[in-house]
TrEMBL record:
Keyword Signal: no
Keyword Metal-binding: yes
Example GO molecular function: ATP binding
Localization in the cell: Golgi apparatus
Domain FAM20 C-terminal: 215-428
Keyword line: ATP-binding, Disulfide bond, Glycoprotein, Golgi apparatus, Manganese, Metal-binding, Nucleotide-binding
A Pfam cross-reference name: Fam20C
Name of the protein: FAM20 C-terminal domain-containing protein
Active site: D317
């Protein structure tokens, strides 16, 4: 078994090298040996833990690569075990994981046990949601862990029409976005899992008065409308089936980390007929890079990573972003992904503006995307989502949304390829930011 895992791992690494070369081959052929060397060094950086004899084996074994082996290896890595036994509080483990540069570590088998705790722990208090425009509840689970509950509003097949940021939050989008961030190795999204909640037995018994007074009954179903910017009474409320409501729990980040809100440089105006500067200024990215915040460090590359992530999930609503206060090298925390997976038929290209205007992307992000092309991304994500309890009743993502992921990934790769042709891979791929 160990030898087989080693072989499959080598196959995955070889697959990265092979597809990278094939995609870059036309562009590389016209560049200097120095350009080629930089690209190869980037590829070799993924293999730093292999011995030199293994590198030779990998580079000469591309003919034995099987797409199915890559898929199975990735599924094995990202599919979680909800029965995983924890030797301490799940909330303490999750809190200790968070650093200024990631929310969960690369290797996190305990994550399965944490999700199980989110699904099963008793709710000890319930209150209105914390700020924001969307309906939600703030819950506290046994052990003192605060979570956000986002209720189900739509059937999975419902398509959100209109502009790319229309509609209420899709609770299933939070779950899919969390696991997608793991697969992309962009571990900057809060932990999320689906849960069925009995509003009568689990919420009303422990709810604060200000939440309780928003409950009502419609057609013998228990409903509530909460308090938020767009919560205007029963007409904006949501109803359970009987008293049981499907939703998503999102784990609250540790309170010793204070979040700092920033205006996104590529934010929309949200005003009909009024374009933002980035939509009309061809030199916009250059002007952004002259700002102290984006001239050096990781912030611009984090913006571009987030743009790729948002484009894949169809989230055109990231008008602000949050970082950990007091940490100059903080990640951009990819919060509030509920405006995702609304319309599988539309690819909102403008979400990618930071990528195609700056023509830069982290090399490790690019290599990751290469591995996930050709249908691998959708298949791995689909299998990873099967662990979630609400997936058993209704798949978290429809086939159309999974197909949209693969289609959008190809679009991202095409844009990067265009940048290669324009500037050369050594200018586009960023290694140390």
């Amino acid at each position: 078994m160990k030898l087989r895992r080693i072989f499959v791992f080598l196959v995955c690494i070889s697959f990265i090298f092979y597809v990278s070369y094939k995609i870059l081959e036309p562009e590389i052929s016209g560049q200097s040996l120095q350009d080629q060397g930089q690209l190869e060094l980037g590829l070799l950086s993924l293999k730093h833990h292999l011995q030199s004899k293994d590198l030779v084996y990998v580079q000469n074994s591309s003919q034995r690569i099987k797409k199915e082996d890559v898929i199975q290896e990735l599924i094995q890595k990202y599919r979680l075990d909800l029965s995983y036994s924890l030797n301490q509080s799940p909330w303490r483990i999750a809190s200790n994981w968070v650093t200024p540069r990631e929310i969960i570590p690369e290797s996190a088998p305990e994550l399965g046990g944490i999700l199980k705790a989110l699904i099963t722990r008793k709710i000890i208090s319930a209150d209105i949601g914390h700020k924001g425009t969307q309906l939600k509840m703030t819950l506290v689970l046994e052990g003192g862990q605060k979570v956000v509950f986002k209720p189900r509003r739509f059937d999975r097949t419902h398509v959100i029409e209109g502009n790319p940021y229309s509609g209420e939050d899709r609770h299933n989008g939070e779950i899919a976005a969390f696991h997608l961030s793991r697969i992309l190795e962009l571990r900057r999204t809060p932990i999320a899992v689906g849960r069925m909640i009995d509003l009568t037995e689990e919420i009303k018994q422990v709810a604060r008065i200000r939440l309780l007074e928003t409950f009502f009954t419609r057609d013998e179903n228990t409903c509530f409308y909460g308090k938020c910017l767009y919560c205007h009474g029963p007409e904006t409320g949501v109803c359970a089936k009987g008293s049981v409501l499907e939703g998503t729990l999102v784990l609250w980040l540790p309170e010793h980390y204070t979040l700092k809100l920033h205006k996104h440089p590529w934010a929309r105006t949200y005003k009909e007929g009024k374009a933002a500067k980035w939509e009309t200024d061809e030199d916009y990215c250059y002007k952004v890079t002259q700002m102290d915040l984006f001239r050096e460090g990781s912030r611009l590359m984090d913006i571009i990573d987030t743009a790729v992530f948002d484009f894949l999930i169809g989230n055109a609503d990231r008008h602000h972003y949050e970082t950990f206060e007091k940490y100059n090298d903080s990640i951009i925390i990819m919060l509030d992904n509920g405006k995702s997976f609304g319309n599988p038929h539309m690819d909102e290209i403008s979400i990618l503006a930071p990528l195609y205007q700056c023509c830069s992307i982290r090399q490790k992000t690019w290599l990751r995307l290469l591995v996930l092309q050709d249908g691998i991304l959708s298949e791995v994500l689909e299998q990873t989502l099967t662990l979630d309890p609400i997936n058993n009743m209704d798949p978290i993502l429809t086939t159309l949304h999974l197909q949209a992921l693969d289609r959008r990934l190809k679009i991202v790769l095409d844009y990067v390829q265009q940048c290669f042709h324009k500037y050369g891979s050594n200018k586009v791929l960023i290694q140390n930011r």
